[in-house]
Design goal:
Elements lengths: L5 H4 L9 H6 L10 H8 L8 E5 L2 E4 L3 E2 L4 E2 L3 E3 L4 E2 L4 E2 L3 E3 L4 E4 L2 E7 L4 E4 L2 E7 L4 E2 L4 E2 L10 E4 L2 E4 L7 E3 L4 E2 L4 E2 L3 E3 L4 E2 L4 E2 L2 E2 L3 E5 L2 E4 L2
Parallel strand pairs: 2-5, 3-6, 4-7, 5-8, 6-9, 7-10, 8-10, 9-11, 10-12, 12-17, 13-18, 14-19, 17-20, 18-21, 19-22, 20-23, 21-24
Antiparallel strand pairs: 1-2, 15-16, 24-25
Pfam families: GMPPB_C
Keywords: Acyltransferase, Transferase
Protein name: Bifunctional protein GlmU
């Protein structure tokens, strides 16, 4: 069993400007429908010395680097020293922290990225929360809708938690390393400091400090 409450699951709430959302809710997936309104509320309060409002509902830190061929739809906040590379597509309802990398051909939609998150090459991240210093290898994606279109159920050992939501991607805690070509199935929850092998297919909840090779082979780090 993995402790799934926000208070226990996330170690670094000081590494996102959305900390109050985590404090106001019990579980991470409860935050997903709140992202849009939070961005719209916080955006106008951001320092004009630090952020530019480049268009309606889009705020970008002056120190961020945005490629000319990137597409950014609001509502969105992009933090200081973050790099958005060529061909990136930010679809909206996106809160991207400081020092992040959103790479070439990466798509972001309804997400919170803590500070120093990297999704640098051909990633799809939808309806997800990526914790501090988490990294998704090239071609790894979140799958956020079940094939039968029913609500996502979080499977934590023998426990099954009904979320009431059809769209939930992945919830990663701090310093998670996702190997290249991995698929994080709807409702995947990965504890802090876990490494996932390349070309993996992840389901359910993975304990912190794990090495995930496949569903039947998950080792604890020593």
């Amino acid at each position: 069993m993995v402790e799934l409450t926000n208070k226990e699951f996330f170690q670094d709430l000081d590494q996102t400007i959305a900390a109050q959302l985590f404090e106001q809710t019990t579980y991470p997936w409860e935050i997903l429908p709140l992202i849009k309104d939070f961005v719209l509320e916080v955006g106008p309060t951001l320092s004009v010395d630090e952020y530019d409002q480049v268009e309606e509902d889009v705020w970008i830190a002056k120190s961020a680097t945005i490629a000319k061929t990137a597409t950014i739809n609001g509502p969105a906040i992009i933090g200081p020293d973050t790099e958005v590379r060529p061909g990136a597509f930010i679809r909206g309802n996106a809160l991207i922290g400081a020092g992040c990398v959103v790479g070439n051909s990466t798509e972001i939609k309804n997400d919170i990225l803590f500070n120093n998150v990297q999704v640098p090459h051909y990633n799809y991240v939808g309806d997800s929360i990526l914790g501090y210093k988490s990294h998704m290898g090239a071609g790894s994606i979140t799958s956020n809708v079940k094939s039968d279109k029913t609500n996502v159920v979080i499977k934590n050992g023998e426990e099954k938690i009904e979320t009431g939501r059809k769209k939930i991607g992945a919830i990663l805690s701090s310093r998670v390393e996702v190997g290249c070509g991995t698929i994080l199935n709807p409702g995947s929850v990965v504890g802090h400091d876990t490494n996932i092998y390349p070309l993996s297919m992840v389901r359910g909840c993975i304990a912190p400090n794990s090495i995930y090779k496949n569903a039947g082979e998950i080792a604890q780090k020593r």
